[in-house]
Design goal:
Number of helices: 10
GO biological process, one term: proteolysis
Family: Belongs to the peptidase S8 family.
Keywords: Glycoprotein, Hydrolase, Protease, Serine protease, Signal
Strand order of the largest sheet: 4-3-9-5-6-7-8
GO molecular function: serine-type endopeptidase activity
InterPro entries: PA_dom_sf, PA_domain, Peptidase_S8/S53_dom_sf, SBT, Subtilisin-like_FN3
Radius of gyration: 25 Å
Strand content: 25-35%
Helix content: 10-25%
Oligomer: single chain
Length: 396
């Protein structure tokens, strides 16, 4: 079969916005990696705030430059550093604080500052962008700061620009830093679930590296779910070599069931606001290639198994018949419902697997048997899962 992997989309972080949610597709959300290309904004009071920039000029002066807020002229769009933002403001020889957004690209903001004679740019996140930063190939010395760091420059009277008679700043370029312990984290642009077309299917399936991924078209650090899709396609190409007898579904579920749910600190994966990311942002977790190549157990699905999903989505028997000969009615979950699942042992011949249950609020989950004992490779065993609605919990 043909393995299908698609991007969840780049219009996040709002929920129920993702694309490519069919159950036979591996839908991939976006995450950060532990590499940062550090560029630090240093204020005249000596306080430093770390950000990122791919452009790392070696000869940029550590001398403090006058610091100006792009929105100081009071025009509503000037703060975004778009075309004509500095028609009324002299930024020559100054470092300019620009705000992210308003349809103006991050690099384009720097171009506007440079064309107006500015010496550098500090790019500040909007609140919705949170702590996420990206290393871009800026056209002038620049750094991209989180909302928490950037907002210290403007706002309340005691913030630096408003409290200083002559605010100054510079940018210190510190190169590549490996080992960001909060990685992986969900990228704010990653579109989230649930699927509107089929709310019963948990999407995305996984998240994968998509921030500061080295790209060669042209040379740059790419960001977004297109780059994590490329990464995962490369990963999937490895699987047929290691497991030529696996179906596309087996590969998909090997990747999902071995995904990591913790960051490098061993803590739950977080979102752009450093809050614990929910399942509609992370899916099964962050892709782990080594584990996916040796998952122990895999779930496999035959094409006919998808028919019930198509029926549940409202397709007619005739429409479904184009795909398969038989029609299976879609099972609706009521107060109590049981499902059976079959797993295949692709690990060691003599192995035992146990179950660990994390119950959703308002639902009782019972799995039988609680242990599966395998005696040979490729042996298949079944287990059943019963879901029961608990009304007193549902009413909380």
């Amino acid at each position: 079969g043909i393995f299908a992997s698609c991007s969840a989309g780049n219009s996040g972080p709002l929920s129920a916005t993702l694309s490519n949610e069919a159950p036979w597709i591996l839908t991939v959300g976006a995450s950060t990696i532990d590499r940062t290309i550090k560029a630090t904004a240093m204020l005249g009071n000596g306080i430093e705030y770390d950000g990122e920039s791919l452009f790392q000029p070696s000869g940029f002066s550590s001398t403090l430059f006058p610091l100006i807020y792009a929105g100081a002229d009071g025009e509503p769009n000037s703060k975004f550093c778009g075309e004509g933002a500095f028609n009324k403001t002299n930024v020559s020889g100054k470092i300019v604080l620009c705000e992210r957004g308003n349809g103006v690209g991050r690099i384009a903001k720097g171009e506007e500052v440079k064309n107006a004679g500015g010496s550098g740019m500090i790019l500040m996140n909007q609140e919705s962008d949170g702590f996420s930063t990206e290393a871009n190939a800026h056209v002038l010395p620049a750094t991209h700061l989180s909302y928490a760091s950037g907002s210290i420059y403007v706002g309340r009277r005691e913030y630096y620009i408003n409290s200083s008679l002559s605010p100054v700043a510079t940018i210190l370029f510190k190169g590549t830093i490996i080992g960001e312990s909060s990685a992986p984290a969900v990228r704010p642009g990653s579109e989230g679930g649930p699927s509107l077309a089929s709310p019963g299917i948990l999407k995305p399936d996984i998240i994968g590296p998509s921030v500061s991924v080295l790209a060669a078209w042209p040379f740059s650090l790419d960001n977004g779910t297109n780059s994590d899709l490329t990464y995962n396609i490369i990963l999937f190409l490895v699987h047929p070599c290691s497991h030529p007898d696996w179906s596309p579904a087996a590969i998909k579920y090997a990747i999902m069931t071995t995904a990591d749910i913790s960051n490098l600190e061993g803590q739950p994966i977080v979102d752009q606001n450093l809050n614990i990311a929910n399942l509609f942002a992370t899916g099964s977790g962050h892709v782990n290639p080594s584990k996916a190549n040796d998952p122990g157990l895999i779930y496999d699905i035959q094409p006919d198994d998808y028919i019930s999903c198509l029926c549940g989505l409202g397709y007619s028997d005739e429409q479904v018949g184009i795909i398969a000969h038989g029609v299976i009615k879609f099972p609706m979950i009521g107060t109590t419902k049981s499902f059976s699942r079959t797993v295949t042992n692709v690990g060691e011949a003599n192995s035992t697997y146990g179950v660990e249950i994390v119950e959703p609020n308002g639902v009782s989950v019972n799995v039988k048997p609680t242990l599966l004992h395998f005696t040979e490779v490729n042996q298949k065993l079944k287990y059943s899962v019963m879901f029961e609605s608990i009304c007193n919990k549902c009413l909380r």
